[in-house]
């Protein structure tokens, strides 16, 4: 798709920008399709107004790193390490876990294979209508964001209601079904460890239906010809309870630690875990949901990641800090809310920052 104007950021919606967005969206080729057409400059609606991105490598003098938890250690050690990582950075990688490495390779490989099929095969799955439980598109917030990000995404609702499988790309179907089974097992194990770290019953999160709502977002970040001008994924926190992510060995994922961005270095066979906003609220601020982002990919090899978001399955339920974590010394930091209202707020805004947890803080009540 040719650029119809100068390459300047345009965060204010206008008819020219809207026309460009529609033209791109209706082409159904995604950013991978733009790359395949030999694009050398990115369309203006992908340009972000922030400072140019740093190179995707650890900067000299950076003293922080993402914790790695060895699941083969004694349980009390694993509980302590998961608790420490969750109360500080909110991100950690797990190794020597129960998930077979070939299962990780299979799901990542199937997503890569789908994105590298020809446009005609992919286009029939391209949609912004998620009512069938699956859709492939570029940026779910394409029309709401100040600037688009350089990635294509296959989103699949896995539970409590499975998708209409004919809307899921055939090359991915079996791998997604098998991956969901593995993720449920590791998710239950993780939630038990997290509960033990809080000093509450091991099945507390499970009983709150936190295992029961699952959505997959499989991202494909192709080569970007001007990676310094855009993002792969803008800074944000995840709205749910817990995120379980696997990826190939391409760098790009960064976590905010204070005022620094820390690179997450992929470890073959590892699984990346991060705390979501609802778990920060449920834990009464003991666990931290931390801002993270993905840089646009400057390499010819694509970055591929598959995230499963664990959310409450009971949408009509109210959520807030666990009563057993509230005391005179530690009053409730958040007010209660209906989960369906909470997610409505998430999808009505641009993917950006910590607005959800801040909104529900008691200190923000009028």
From TrEMBL:
<dbReference type="InterPro" id="IPR044861">
    <property type="entry name" value="IPNS-like_FE2OG_OXY"/>
</dbReference>
<keyword id="KW-0479">Metal-binding</keyword>
<protein>
    <recommendedName>
        <fullName>Fe2OG dioxygenase domain-containing protein</fullName>
    </recommendedName>
</protein>
<dbReference type="GO" id="GO:0046872">
    <property type="term" value="F:metal ion binding"/>
</dbReference>
<dbReference type="GO" id="GO:0016706">
    <property type="term" value="F:2-oxoglutarate-dependent dioxygenase activity"/>
</dbReference>
<feature type="domain" description="Fe2OG dioxygenase">
    <location>
        <begin position="206"/>
        <end position="312"/>
    </location>
</feature>
<comment type="similarity">
    <text>Belongs to the iron/ascorbate-dependent oxidoreductase family.</text>
</comment>
<dbReference type="GO" id="GO:0002238">
    <property type="term" value="P:response to molecule of fungal origin"/>
</dbReference>
<dbReference type="Pfam" id="PF14226">
    <property type="entry name" value="DIOX_N"/>
</dbReference>
<dbReference type="InterPro" id="IPR027443">
    <property type="entry name" value="IPNS-like_sf"/>
</dbReference>
<dbReference type="InterPro" id="IPR005123">
    <property type="entry name" value="Oxoglu/Fe-dep_dioxygenase_dom"/>
</dbReference>
<dbReference type="GO" id="GO:0009805">
    <property type="term" value="P:coumarin biosynthetic process"/>
</dbReference>
<keyword id="KW-0560">Oxidoreductase</keyword>
<dbReference type="InterPro" id="IPR026992">
    <property type="entry name" value="DIOX_N"/>
</dbReference>
<keyword id="KW-0408">Iron</keyword>
<keyword id="KW-0847">Vitamin C</keyword>
<dbReference type="GO" id="GO:0031418">
    <property type="term" value="F:L-ascorbic acid binding"/>
</dbReference>
<dbReference type="Pfam" id="PF03171">
    <property type="entry name" value="2OG-FeII_Oxy"/>
</dbReference>
């Amino acid at each position: 798709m040719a650029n119809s104007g100068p390459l300047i950021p345009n965060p204010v919606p206008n008819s020219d920008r809207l026309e460009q967005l529609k033209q791109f969206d209706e082409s159904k080729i995604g950013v991978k399709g733009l790359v395949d057409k030999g694009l050398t400059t990115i369309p203006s609606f992908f340009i972000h107004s922030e400072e140019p991105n740093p190179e995707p490598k650890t900067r000299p003098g950076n003293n922080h790193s993402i914790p790695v938890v060895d699941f083969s250690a004694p349980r009390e050690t694993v509980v302590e390490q998961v608790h420490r990582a969750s109360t500080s950075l909110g991100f950690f990688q797990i190794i020597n876990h129960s998930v077979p490495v070939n299962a990780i390779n299979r799901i990542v490989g199937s997503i890569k294979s789908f994105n590298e099929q020809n446009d005609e095969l992919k286009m029939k799955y391209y949609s912004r209508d998620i009512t069938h439980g699956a859709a492939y598109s570029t940026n779910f917030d394409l029309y709401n964001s100040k600037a688009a990000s350089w990635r294509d995404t296959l989103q699949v609702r896995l539970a409590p209601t499975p998708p209409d499988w004919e809307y899921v790309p055939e090359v991915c179907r079996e791998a997604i079904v098998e991956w969901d089974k593995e993720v449920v097992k590791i998710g239950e194990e993780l939630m038990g460890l997290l509960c033990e770290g809080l000093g509450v019953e091991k099945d507390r999160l499970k009983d709150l239906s936190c295992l029961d709502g699952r959505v997959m977002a499989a991202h494909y970040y192709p080569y970007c010809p001007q990676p310094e001008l855009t993002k792969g994924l803008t800074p944000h926190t995840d709205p749910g309870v817990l995120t379980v992510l696997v990826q190939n060995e391409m760098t790009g994922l960064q976590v905010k630690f204070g005022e620094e961005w820390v690179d997450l270095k992929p470890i073959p066979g590892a699984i990346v875990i991060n705390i979501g906003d609802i778990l920060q609220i449920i834990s009464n601020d003991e666990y931290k949901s931390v801002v993270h982002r993905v840089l646009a990919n400057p390499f010819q090899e694509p970055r591929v990641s598959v995230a499963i978001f664990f959310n409450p399955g009971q949408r009509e339920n109210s959520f807030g800090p666990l009563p057993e974590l509230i005391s005179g010394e530690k009053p409730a930091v958040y007010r209660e809310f209906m989960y369906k209202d909470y997610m409505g707020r998430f999808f009505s805004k641009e993917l950006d920052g910590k607005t959800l947890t801040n909104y529900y803080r008691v200190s923000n009540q009028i």
